[in-house]
Amino acid sequence: MAINLKVNGQIRRTNAKPETPLLYVLRNDLALNGAKFGCGLSQCGACTVLHNGKAVRSCVTPISAIGTGEITTIEGIGSTDKLHPLQKAFIDEQAAQCGYCTNGMIMSAKELLDRTPRPTEKDVREALAGNLCRCGTHNRIIRAVLRAVETAGRG
Ligand code: FES
Ligand code: FES
Predict the structure, then answer these.
(1) Which atom belonging to ligand 1 lies closest to the Cα atom of 59?
(2) Residue 137 Cβ < 6 Å to ligand 2
(3) Residue 129 in contact with ligand 2 by CB distance below 6 A
(4) What is residue 155's predicted lDDT score, i.e. its pLDDT?
(5) Which is nearest to 105 in space by CA: 83, 90, 121?
(6) Which residues pair with 49 in a beta bridge?
(7) Mean pLDDT rounded to a whole number for the chain
(8) Residues near 97 by beta carbon (within 8 Å), at least 6 away in sequence
(9) What is the pLDDT of residues 79-91, one digit of tens each?
(10) What is the CA(127)–ligand 1 centre distance, in A?
């Protein structure tokens, strides 16, 4: 039986089984490739998306757990023409090497900024502690999130 999911403000239909991880449906059925497969075990954060504003690991979230909730992926927060402030700050700080972790980092940071608009550096470090960067770009990533906070504060 088809399942409807609300993704980035649109109702999207999938024929995937209820136990299918959300990440597979996003990437394979809905052509939303922003969330990445890293570990598949809820350990790296590359697959992070928001479920009703809360950062979740889509690799271990079955679509049956979504219900009528709202899923937001990196594609839903900004575009090349209209970057989200976090996306712009990541570019300005050159906060990526291979970039594989970047989208998950931004989604975790978005959850933080939505609930704590003026986080401290410690808050940012804690919020991103579960997102791994194998390229060792963490310090630039933290700077990028703090830059986005500053930009928002000036705006
Ligand atoms: S791929 Fe989901 S946490 Fe690593
Ligand atoms: S930039 Fe390569 S994993 Fe983070």
Answers:
(1) 2
(2) yes
(3) no
(4) 53
(5) 90
(6) 56
(7) 97
(8) 135, 136, 137
(9) 999 999 999 999 9
(10) 16
Q: Is 21 in the pocket of ligand 1 (CB under 6 A)?
A: no
Across the strands, what pairs with 110? Answer: none
Which residue matches tokens 């399942």?
3
DSSP string covering 14-78, please?
Answer: E-S-TTSBHHHIIIIIS----S--S-SSSSS-TTEEEETTEEEEGGG-BGGGTTTPEEE-GGGT-
Q: Which-ligand-closest: CA of 135?
A: 2
> What gap in Å lies between CA 62 and CA 51, rounded to an integer?
12
Neighbours of 138 (CB within 10 A): 17
The distance in angstroms from the start CA to the end CA of the chain is 47
3-state SS assignment for residue 4:
strand
- Helical axes 85-92 vs 102-115, angle rounded to 10°: 130
Phi, psi for residue 118 in degrees, rounded to 5: -120, 65
Contact 140, 148 (CB under 8 A): no
Nearest to 45 by CA among 134, 149, 120: 134
Residue (of 101, 81, 84, 82) closest to 141 by Cα position: 101
Q: In this structure, are residues 142 and 89 in contact, taking their beta carbons and an 8 Å threshold?
A: no
